[in-house]
């Protein structure tokens, strides 16, 4: 599993994470923000998770060490 942390205090609602990786990142339609906090995705989604994190201009998304 891949653990992801979204820092909601840094998110400015650009939505690029979801554009780049809709299977991993979701934007709250009411606030326009990624409010996911910490969550895990399957290992096969690691490349998509990294693409979405890299697209964030605020660097609000971090991929953490594998959750074992």
Protein architecture, described:
The chain has helices at about 15-20, 45-55; strands spanning about 1-5, 40, 60-65. By secondary structure, it is α+β, with helices and mostly antiparallel strands. Strands 2-1-3 form a three-stranded antiparallel sheet, with helices on one face. The protein is globular.
Instruction: Summarize the main sheet.
Output: 3 strands, antiparallel
Strand numbers in spatial order across the main sheet:
2-1-3
* Discrete helix count: 2
Terminus-to-terminus distance: 7 Å
Gross morphology is: globular
Structural class per helix/strand content?
Answer: alpha+beta
Question: Strand-residue fraction?
Answer: 15-25%
Number of strands: 3
Task: Summarize the helix and strand pattern as letters.
Answer: EHEHE
Mean pLDDT equals 93
Radius of gyration: 11 Å
Contiguous runs where pLDDT drops below 50 for at least 5 residues: none
Helix fraction, binned, reads: 10-25%
Which short descriptors sum up this protein?
68 residues, alpha+beta, 3-stranded antiparallel β-sheet, 2 helices, 3 strands, 18% strand
List the helices and strands and how they pair.
Blueprint: E1 2-6, H1 16-20, E2 38-41, H2 46-55, E3 61-63
Antiparallel strand pairs: 1-2, 1-3
């Amino acid at each position: 599993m891949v653990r992801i942390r979204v820092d909601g205090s840094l998110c400015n609602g650009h939505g690029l994470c979801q554009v780049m990786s809709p299977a991993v990142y979701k934007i709250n339609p009411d606030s326009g923000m990624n409010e996911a906090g910490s969550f895990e995705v399957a290992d096969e989604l690691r490349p998509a998770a990294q693409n979405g994190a890299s697209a964030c201009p605020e660097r609000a998304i971090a991929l953490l060490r594998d959750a074992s």
